[in-house]
Design a protein that fits this description.
The chain contains ten helices and seven strands. It has helices at 18-29, 41-54, 74-85, 109-137, 148-151, 158-178, 196-199, 204-212, 217-226, 236-246; strands spanning 9-13, 33-38, 61-66, 91-94, 140-145, 183-190, 258-261. Bound molecules: NADP nicotinamide-adenine-dinucleotide phosphate.
């Protein structure tokens, strides 16, 4: 199936590793021109090189911009960089984020605020900056990467859950505003996924091992997998392929949805 993304300008935030990098790689392999965003310059440059190689056959292009999406002027800088290097933005993936395990009572105010900034304000500013131009040109896609925790709050990830739920609400508002103009806004709700957020040192796996009293990392991983009907965590590509589809021409009748990519974790059908 041709996703119809050749030469489309795409922005992926949080693209230096994990779900964001896998998404950028897929988009490049479809011939898209992708601007990758993350804070650490060296890793985002390396990620763009990887995407360029993945896109070589299809004519995909990749560039990077080191930028904290929570900066007040990030949206303007990202829009200008994308336009300068490739042209106006056709597809935006709001994916940057991070998470920690701890008890509800242990979350300091600064971390509540930080979760709000990265999961709500940053995606909002980027949509506010980019969606009107997409509407003028009559075609656009936005995918906001939320979480299963947006639908059913996780007791061990309080501020993250609340901010991700707000991100779904924001996503729906923008979907309603722009769908008739050809700009389709959707969210995805991944379950636990084997990115650095889970698998890295001191990541969610290590934290869940300590929290759950598991003897080894493998025990903790098995226990986390066993909580899903599918019986395991997702690979990053399994989430990225859904995001890439929602960015595509082929997702032309999907708007305002929050697609579960969670191996059946959230036990409702809507
Ligand atoms: N992994 C999971 O189990 C899971 C489940 C549900 C939802 N999600 C969501 O999926 C998204 C991607 O997660 P992941 O698992 O791929 O995480 P990851 O492997 O830790 O990657 C996170 C990416 O975001 C970037 N980033 C973080 N804060 C940023 C900021 N303020 N500005 C710009 N870039 C920033 C990181 O690079 P720098 O540090 O260099 O900035 C990195 O590229 C997140 O929104 C996460 O909440 C993940």
């Amino acid at each position: 199936m041709d996703l119809g993304l050749r030469e489309r300008t795409c922005v992926v935030t949080g693209a230096s590793r994990g779900i964001g990098l896998a998404t950028a790689r897929f988009l490049c392999a479809e011939g898209a021109s992708v601007l990758l965003i993350a804070r650490d310059e060296r890793s985002v440059v390396r990620a763009a090189d990887e995407c360029l190689a993945a896109g070589a056959e299809a004519g995909g292009r990749a560039e990077s911009l080191a930028c904290d999406v929570t900066d007040r002027d990030a949206a303007e800088r990202i829009a200008a960089a994308a336009e300068d290097r490739f042209g106006p933005v056709d597809a935006l993936v709001n994916n940057a984020g991070s998470a920690k395990w701890r008890d509800l009572d242990d979350v300091p105010d600064e971390d509540w605020q930080a979760a709000w900034e990265v999961n709500v304000m940053a995606p909002m500013r980027l949509m506010r900056e980019l969606a009107p131009g997409m509407a003028e040109r009559g075609w656009g896609r936005v995918v906001n990467v939320a979480s299963t925790a947006a639908k059913r709050p996780s007791a061990a990830m309080a501020e993250y859950s609340v901010a991700k739920a707000a991100e779904l609400s924001l996503s729906r508002l923008y979907a309603d505003r722009f769908a008739a103009k050809g700009v389709l806004v959707n969210a995805v709700c991944p379950g636990p996924t084997k990115s650095e957020m889970w698998m890295g040192e001191d990541g969610l796996l290590d934290q869940s091992q300590a929290h759950g009293g598991h003897e080894t990392r493998d025990d903790a991983l098995e226990a986390a997998g066993a909580k899903r009907p599918i019986g395991r965590l997702a690979e990053v590509e399994e989430v990225a392929s859904v995001i890439a589809f929602l960015c595509s021409e082929q997702a032309s009748y999907v708007a305002g949805s929050a697609w579960g990519v969670d191996g059946g974790t959230v036990q409702v059908i809507i």
